[in-house]
Amino acid sequence: MTELLIRQADAGDIAALCALLFEHGPNPWNHLPEAEVRAHLQAIADGSVQAVLAERGGQRESGGEPLGMVSYRLSRDFARYQPEARREQLHAYICEAVVHRDAAGQGLGARLLQQAVEHLAGQGVQDIYIDRHEENAASAGMMRKAGFVELDTFPDPARRPNGSGRTTVCCLRLAADAAEG
């Protein structure tokens, strides 16, 4: 059995992350505008975006095959969902998550989300947000396995032209007063 390495992505991984996302991410539920997604992943180079990467091969030096990734950044975009006491604090946004088709359905997405959560917790983040198309069952399952709870669903036809056209926002609260919001 081939080893799996999960690690923080760096600037040298950007091209492989883009290739993985654009090959295995497109489906009727995902909003992946190419220029915006490439700019987002390029920001790994300056540290304003972070990502965890799973590779088959087990050794960093071997340039293993990318099997999945989760990208995230610090944000204030979800302040309206923040508990009152933390409304002004930075929180995190999980931006992109993708698993290679050959590795889908094996829990890798949830493992990568958990690694991202642990990394963010180590940075002192208390609230982590993620969103998806309301009808994206695979993403919903991955998010639930990682502990995310649905907070809101709203019409979002510009980003969600298929199905219900709605976005669901989910949150994982790491703070002791998680029951507040």
From TrEMBL:
Domain of life where this protein originates: Bacteria
Gene3D superfamilies on file: 3.40.630.30
Alphabetical list of Pfam families matching this protein: Acetyltransf_1
Signal peptide: none
InterPro entries: Acyl_CoA_acyltransferase, Bact_Acetyltransf, GNAT_dom
Keywords noted in UniProt: Acyltransferase, Transferase
Residue ranges constituting the N-acetyltransferase domain according to the UniProt record: 4-177
Name of the molecule in the record: GNAT family N-acetyltransferase
Source organism of the structure: Pseudomonas benzenivorans
